[in-house]
Write a sequence for this structure.
């Protein structure tokens, strides 16, 4: 008897958490399609995954490109939404509130747009996993804006879990993870930030993309998990 092969689509899968998730999931029982905006980076990621699946690059922030991608994809089983953003950081007193709108356009709207476009072909017995961030769960100075942005996904997931049932809808909220998200900081400053958070985090280190990929893989595979927020932060939210 042939083994059932499921198909997972990862939006934002060419680097960081999305790419680590692709590496974690791909195998004899799981076909993986990764997406990204940068064609060269996407080709490099496909090659690193063994040429699993090749699709053209597209921008998840552009609804026409999103619809075109899903219209040509065909039926699939799982959707991981790893589109990221960095708007909204900084002290509230000086925060440009327009950055919150920009952050929604950069991260939240693309994730919701991809899910909406995917619904006609996404297996109703499958799953959706949003990627939020622990900034939505901690009371720390400087994260009011980005926390508000990421908190939208924590709010919408249980609602969609009920509305879209039996499709399972969950969220992973990573903590401080060593990924290209931090490349906006110079190397020396980035390492100093990592060391500071490693000292605050109960497990004594910052996270790796592979740590979050394990959490995502759990939600993809566990058919009894829906409407949940799985926080993968090394306990940072308890100590921050």
């Amino acid at each position: 008897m042939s083994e059932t092969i499921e198909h997972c689509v990862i939006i934002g899968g060419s680097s960081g958490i999305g790419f680590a998730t692709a590496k974690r999931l791909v195998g004899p029982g799981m076909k993986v399609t990764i997406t990204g905006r940068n064609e060269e980076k996407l080709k490099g990621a496909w090659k690193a995954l063994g040429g699993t699946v090749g699709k053209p690059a597209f921008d998840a922030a552009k609804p026409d490109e999103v619809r075109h991608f899903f219209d040509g994809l065909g039926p699939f089983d799982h959707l991981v939404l790893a589109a990221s953003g960095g708007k909204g950081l900084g002290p509230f007193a000086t925060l440009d509130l327009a950055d919150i709108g920009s952050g929604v356009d950069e991260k939240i709207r693309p994730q919701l747009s991809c899910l909406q476009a995917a619904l006609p072909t996404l297996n109703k017995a499958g799953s959706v996993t949003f990627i939020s961030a622990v900034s939505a769960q901690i009371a720390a100075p400087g994260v009011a804006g980005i926390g508000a942005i990421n908190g939208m996904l924590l709010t919408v997931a249980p609602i969609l879990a009920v509305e879209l049932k039996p499709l399972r809808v969950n969220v992973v909220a990573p903590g401080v993870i060593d990924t290209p998200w931090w490349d906006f900081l110079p190397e020396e400053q980035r390492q100093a930030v990592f060391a500071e958070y490693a000292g605050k985090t109960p497990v004594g280190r910052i996270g790796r993309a592979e740590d979050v990929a394990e959490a995502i893989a759990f939600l993809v595979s566990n058919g009894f998990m829906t409407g949940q927020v799985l926080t993968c932060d090394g306990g940072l939210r308890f100590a921050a």
